[in-house]
Amino acid sequence: MDPVLSVRDLSVDLTLPGRERTILDGIGFDVAPREIVGVVGASGAGKTVLSRAVVNWITAPLAIRSGSVSFRGKDLLGLPPRAMRRLRRDIAYVGADPMGALDPTLPVGRQIVEKLRAVMPEVSRQEARERVIALLDAVRIPSAHARFHDYPSQFSGGMMQRALIVDAMVSNPALLVADNVTQPLDVTVAAQVIRLMRELTERFETAILFVSSSLPVAREAASRTLVIDAGRLVEEQPTEALIAAPRHAYTRDLVAQIPVIWGTGPTMPAAPKTPTPKPPAPADAIVSLRGVSQTYRVKKRGSFAGTSELRAVRNVTFDIVKGDSFAVVGESGCGKSTLMRLLSRLERPSAGSVLCEGRDIADLSGSELLGFRRKLQLVLQDPFNSLPPRTGIGAMLEAPLRTHGWRDPKKIRERVRAVMDDVGLPVALYDDLPLGLSAGQRQRVNVARAMVLEPEILLMDETLSALDQTEQFKLLALFDKLQRTHGLTYIYISHDLAMVRKACNRIAVMYLGEVVELADNERLFFDPGHPYTRALLSAMPALEARRYRPEDCLMEGEPPSPIDLPQGCAFRSRCPQAFEACATLPPLLTVRGARDLAACHRVPGAGAALLAGAA
Amino acid sequence: MDAVESSLALAPPRVDVAASRSVGRRILAHAARSGGFRIGAAGLALLVLAAALYPELSGIDPTKMDIRARLLPPLFLGDKWSWAHPLGTDQIGRDMLVRCLVGLRYSLLIGVASVAVTVVIGCALGTVAGYFGGRTDTVIMRITDAQLSIPMIILAIAVLGADRPTIPAIILVLGLSNWPVYARVMRSVVMAERGREYVRAAQVSGATHPRIILTLLVPLLVPPLLFTSVLDVARMMIFESTLGFLGLGVQPPTPTFGSIIADGRKYLLNAWWIATMPGVFLCLTLTSINLIGAAFERARNTIHGGA
Amino acid sequence: MFVLSFLARRLAQGAVIIFLVSLLIFTLLRVMSGNPVRQMVGGMAPDSLVEQIATQMGLRDPIIVQFGRYAAGVVQGDLGRSFVRPANGAATGGANFDDLTRGARAGVGDLILDALPMTLQLAGLALAIALVFSALLGIAAGLRPGGVFDRLAFAVSSVFISIPNFWLGIVLALLLSVKLGWLPAIGYGGFSYTVLPALVLAVELSPVLIRTLSSAVAAQMSEAYVAVGHVRGLSRPRIVAAHALRNASVPLLNLLGVQFSSLLGGVIIVEYIFDYPGLGLLTINAVLQRDFPLIQGIAIVTSAIFVLINILVDLAATTIDPRLEY
Q: pLDDT tens digits for B159-182?
């Protein structure tokens, strides 16, 4: 069969004065009709440039040096704009930024109709409309008729990505270029989108070039995978063969760095800590949450002075034991960031209390509050936003000390040097600005700023999520070392289950503001008690054989809004195991074994608790 | 992230504020490369130099009358011009050039000083409103709305019309008339910055609100604003000349652009230069300042990625 | 429904603004200003008479009492009576102090209503000229940043913003009216008298419009949806006309709302220069004559117009961009 796309000897240069370099170097490959071909590489490897070259979207300062991109035997790169525009019907593109891809001021449906009629003028307005609604329905956008008239800002990221897939597929293209489409999405939503794309290739006979920075994600979608490193195509194999027997050294590293979740092989750098032998007595608890809730009042759309309640965190209770590496995991909107703000006393809870060594931190003020601040420090998420601009690294690290009453410049300097050494920052950087630092080094500055006060608890707010796999490795090793030498307690707030598997001993899973499961590491990954945890595990991109299949664990759809919480169990709308009781009664956290808890009516013994609660 | 990849990503590249060595210096360097800035800077330097030196060096008193030399036209225009009065004389024989240059001194002084007043008040109130939000914000924003709804010229003439206006009174009135604009801008940038993570980090390390405002936010956010305030110096100078024109500016015999133009208006038909020359001077000065200010503004927008 | 609750909220806010404005002006005038009665009765009148009239008019009561009395009148639609102007005919300033009775003086509301249409005509024409001119130049500049039109727009706005309106008025009157005789300049005797003042105002307004439009268009053209639009198969004219300009009009609308008071400030000066019988001329005369009730009335009316214009602007902006919530 003739390939639908064939790329030959494609080279692209950056022509920015003073920064000239080669981005893509002699790339060549074919895509057959109906085939899904994966393209994998690190950020900066040139994947995005490749996907743009394929749709003939190379603009200054990039320039094509050589090569061809042939679609059905016709080279696209030399085509005049008008001819290229006619081909847009057959070559579609979906990018990584669903929210920016459409005009924010016009309804989504109308814009898809506009695109359809631009590439297929023979379609009547009415026909186009019907086709778009039918497709919105086909990608399982609920009540497609009504959503047709909604604006982009009224779509969630996952819904918008589906709408853009509709936009791409509406003209029935022969080739779809999908550039990192799942990157901004939560894992459970990403899994649904990938499933959808596979279905669509079968239905519309479309070939897909599936570009992704994650090999496990590409594996979900693609039957054949290309690996790109520094602008060169280093390997091309059927996906399973590539994972089983990578030939190129870069691919071997890539495969080796993917964290192992279930198998316990030598690839795992730090084995999960064994659970503490004895069950915790409350006396060990360094931080305790007691029925903590946080409710925000948000303005009700279009009302005179009405507000609605957004219940971001609901009735959360758990203890964190000294020396723990405790994780709070969940997807966007689950309330974990609010929980972070409550734990660090950036906000006070609307109900319940956060205790630190038995004291309610909401009551602290003055020097007591300062004392608490010294004890608990925050390491932030974004390596670029979290450092104050225009401040030297040393000065940045001195600031907390000065806040806490240190006055002697010599002692301050000494302490800052010590902490820089501790986190592996060269002391020579003392007077430098964070200008040239890599993301990993910036995160080290963040850690140092938290460590400089010698805290006992570090709150890690998605600290590693902006880093590459390799950098994550190094920082996790550093955290491990710091924990051993300083006796620290860690609280990780994260969406990344693989990282949590590696670094934490105890894990709380949050869904819609509630803790739905609280368990030790091994138990959570091997014997989860809550269907949501199983859904998360099933959707996690991995290279191993899965213990849980998304088809069994996850229904279509997205979490309900925290403003209109459903009655009964919050997860019920997406739970494949829901039954009548779930619709009416909210499940309580029920003990499973010695010290693990899950909030599900299916947990053995939950019925008893339910009865006890009713009595 | 790799620089190339990020600059190509669909989303506009995120501004790495932390990477800015000194925002002020970068704006200056960026602006200095534009042709408009160079023309403006050269023009302004020339005018300021002339205003500073010429009146004393020439030894001509701007208020000295000379009936024999009244209504002389500028050089080469008309038939009885004189080298002693390059821009001619007015209805009572005062030298136009010296009068314009002295007017320029007052105009610049009042313009700069009133902008300083504006910036201080506007930034202070805007910072407080943006940082603390809630009721404080509502109250301050209602007051700015109220003031923005009355043309400042009405306020100014209502106040200055009371007495013979003094220079400090003029500066104060002009300064008070424009602060809501600064308050609004400052409020929005402070609001955006307050949500940034490094502010949160400072808070968690125990820093108090005044400390965060004074050590983190003000040094970061005010300097870029100062660059655009150059444009307001020009606006205030126009405003000052308007007041002078209405007879509410610095009082005679001190010459100001506005009062000279107002006087010259009566002689428009037979001595057009009296009303036109100060205007030309004022326009040249303002164009220079505006070229500089616009170059600053463009530089700031490029560096901050719009907004 | 949404629109109604929006209107209710904004009108309530507007009432607060108008209240604050009138309080501010009222206090300012009472505290800072000279003696209006002296101006009313003229320099020759004896002090005792001045004092007597002042007490009669309630000018010796505490400010808060005076304000309460005034506000009560305003709520009932009575803006008071001019200190200076007689009900019939021109403002004379009142050298004749004995026949100056309350009934003979003109109502503030009537004075404003007479002048307002003239000013609306002037402001409307000025705005139309400025918008057409700025749109042509600003959009062309924004579509090609760094191009010829961008430079031209930059130069034009830099020069225009540097010209004081009163001086431009004088120079244009000298050139176009006196020397060339193309347009009438002073006073009002038909629509042609509006053109010259409107031109001066348009020159004053356009620099900000040009710059806002060009930077808004340029910003929209660098948005992701524009680049993606090409890849989706939309033509450039379609992207520009149907999407970029639509989005760029929102900042322009907001600007118009904010610029209202500077437009009015310009109107005052320009009407004074051209002796154009509108609200501006009325204002400046009222201020120069210390005619407190008239100044207050004008301030209230203008701030009410400001509030209304801003509500309209926000309504329009929300219709274009639904993300801007009501």
A: 777 677 888 989 998 898 888 889
CB A102 within 8 A of CB A153: no
Q: At the top level of CATH, which class does the domain B24-58+85-305 belong to? A: mainly alpha
The enclosing domain of C227 has a CATH number of: 1.10.3720.10
> Which of A235, A167, A237, A249 has its CA nearest to residue A200?
A167
Give the neighbours of chain B: at least 3 Cβ pairs within 8 Å: A, C
Of C5, C234, C250, the CB nearest to A118: C234
ipTM above 0.85, yes or no: no
Q: Which domain holds residue C7?
A: 2-81
Mean per-residue pLDDT of chain C: 83
Report CB contact under 8 Å: B201, A378.
Answer: yes
- Mutate: best of A15, A48, A447, partner B, most B CBs <10 A: A48
CB A28 within 8 A of CB A236: no
Residues of C whose CB is below 8 A from B244: none
In angstroms, the CA C77 to CA C72 distance is 9
C171 shares its domain with C294: yes
**Residue of C88 and B108 predicted with greater confidence:** B108
Q: Which residues of C touch B142 (CB under 8 A)?
A: 13, 16-17, 20
Regarding whether A519 and A409 lie in a shared domain, the answer is yes
Q: How many Å apart are CA B18 and CA A614, to the nearest integer?
A: 56
Show the domain range for A119: 99-172
Per-residue pLDDT of A318-349, as tens digits, reads: 999 998 999 999 888 888 889 999 999 988 99
- Cβ-defined contact of C303 to B157 (cutoff 8 Å): no
- B236-258 in b/e burial notation, b at 16+ Cβ within 10 A? bbbbbbbbbbbbbbbeeebbbbb
CB contact under 8 A, A390 and B23: yes
Whether A80 and A108 share a structural domain: no
Residue of A48, A435, A442 with shortest CB distance to B9: A48
Same domain? C52 vs C185: no
The verdict on residue C101 lying in a domain is no
Q: What are phi and psi of A506, to 5 degrees?
A: -135, 140
The answer for residues whose C-beta is within 8 angstroms of residue B192's C-beta and 6 or more apart is: none
Tokens of A124: 């009547």
| Total domains in the fold of chain A | 3
**Residues C215 and C257 grouped into a single domain:** yes
State whether B275 and C167 contact (CB < 8 Å).
Answer: yes
Q: Which residues in chain B have their CB less than 8 angstroms from residue C307's CB?
A: 149
Domain boundary among A238, A257, A276: A257
The verdict on residue A274 lying in a domain is no
Interface contact A153, partner C, CB < 8 A = yes
B134 interfaces chain A, CB cutoff of 8 Å = no
Same domain for A146 and A221, yes or no, is: no
What is the distance in angstroms between the Cα of B289 and the nearest Cα belonging to chain A?
28
What are φ and ψ of residue C324, in 5° steps?
-75, 105
Q: Give per-residue pLDDT as tens, A91-145.
A: 999 988 888 899 999 999 999 999 999 999 999 999 999 999 998 888 878 888 8
Contact A57 C231 (CB under 8 A): yes
CB A32 within 8 A of CB A1: yes
More confident residue, A412 or A141: A412
User: CB–CB of B254/B102 below 8 Å?
Assistant: yes
Please state which of the ranges A432-436, A585-589, C317-321 shows the lowest mean pLDDT.
A432-436
Interface of B with A in 220-279 (CB under 8 A): 220
**3-class DSSP state of B54:** helix
Of B3, B8, B207, which has the smallest distance from its Cβ to A403's Cβ? B207
Residue in C227, C232, C247 nearest the CB of A167: C232
pTM of the model: 0.80
The mean pLDDT of C23-40, rounded to a whole number, is 72
Query: Looking at the structure, do residues C156 and C202 belong to the same domain, yes or no?
Result: yes
First and final CA of chain B: distance in angstroms? 24
In a domain, A268, yes or no: no
